[in-house]
Amino acid sequence: MIRATGHLRTALWLAELGLPALPLSRAKRPVANCPACKNGVCGDRPNMLAAGPCACPAPCHGWAAATTDVEVLASPTWARAWRYADGVAYHPGGAGYTVVDLDHTAAVDWAREILPATRTVETTRGEHWIYQGTMTSPNAVRDGVDIKSCMAYARWRGPGTGTMTALPDAVRALAVKEPAPVRQGGTVTVPALVGGGECPHRSPAYLERGIAMAEQRITGASEAIHRTVYRTFLAVLSVHGRCGCITDAHIGRLFTAAQAKGESPRHCETAWANALTKLGV
Q1: In sequence order, what are the residues at sequence separation of 6 or more whose Cβ sits closer than 8 angstroms to the Cβ of residue 228?
Q2: Close Cβ partners of 20 (under 8 Å, ≥ 6 residues apart)
Q3: Max alpha carbon distance in the chain (Å)?
Q4: Model's pTM, two decimal places?
Q5: 13: closest CA among 152, 156, 125?
């Protein structure tokens, strides 16, 4: 173990609070891949949503390297990263949070008018609004507004002030892209649905039954949990992934079932991303 000083001490404190932490380089970005992992040689590129496990003990996989394991954070392998770190980041989605990153005054004014109050952290140019709940992490959802939750990292700026509230629909809606306008005389190509027919989910009961069966399959697994979770995610997406029917609430139910069987949030996110990549969704 190395002596906890500076940014490492902050990371250890965050880990105690349940916030998966990682060091930021002097470029204020996660530590770059080590030579053994560079360009996906290790087979695991979590930031690129590709498949494959990686046993690299270095903090070189961005948000996916974030951890609450104090033995890992304070290990000699991470010592160089902390020695040259310019800050500490955390994985909001791994802790069950979503950060609305407001990058300038106009964005903050917009949030105060539109979004419900929650815990607020001042940044160098704006504010972070932190909500309880997770979602995808799109950038530039509007001028000066990014969302950092699952498969993303946020720089630690302090605990902030105010009471954290539940993630509102107004924030989730920011991740939904409006269809591109159709040019006069042009055509729109829609990806083919699984089965080649119309969307079969006219009845909410169809999707509900599929999600419930998936939850049951995960819950009933007695062995090969990793494989069962991945294959279940793959099965759900193969039927429902191209229709736009799956919501964050559905994904949350599947992740909850998987975590109840011992899967970590990171494993859930990686398995979901791998299934998306496998199907090209």
Answers
A1: 217, 218, 221
A2: 14, 66, 67, 68, 90, 91, 94, 95, 266
A3: 67
A4: 0.63
A5: 156
pLDDT in tens, 25-42: 887 889 888 888 877 677
The half-sphere exposure of 9 on its side-chain side, counting CA atoms within 13 A, is 4
pLDDT tens readout for residues 1-19: 445 568 999 999 999 999 9
Q: Which residues lie below 8 Å from residue 13, measured CB to CB, with a gap of 6+?
A: none
Alpha carbon 255 to its chain's center: 12
- Radius of gyration of the chain from Cα atoms? 20
Contacts for 33 with CB less than 8 Å, ≥ 6 apart: 39, 60, 61
Q: Which residues neighbour 173 within 8 Å (Cβ) at sequence distance 6 or greater?
A: none
What would the two tokens of residue 1 be?
A: 């173990």
Q: How many CA atoms, within 13 angstroms, populate the side-chain half-sphere of residue 128? A: 23
Q: How are beta strands 127-132 and 119-122 bridged, if at all?
A: antiparallel
**Residues with Cβ within 8 Å of residue 30, at least 6 apart in sequence:** 22, 23, 24, 59, 60, 61, 62, 63, 65, 89, 153
The total of other beta-carbon atoms located within 10 Å of residue 258's CB is 28
Running along the chain, 281 residues long, what does each successive block of 10 average in pLDDT?
Answer: 73 95 88 81 50 73 90 93 93 94 96 96 96 90 92 94 95 70 41 48 72 87 82 83 79 88 83 81 65
Q: Which residues pair with 145 in a beta bridge?
A: 102, 142
How many other CB atoms are found less than 10 A from the CB of residue 48? 10
* Nearest residue to 54 (alpha-carbon basis) of 266, 279, 277: 266
Q: What angle do CA 63, 68, 70 make, to 5 degrees?
A: 125
> In whole angstroms, what is the distance from residue 5 CA to residue 87 CA?
12
- Sequence letter at residue 205: A
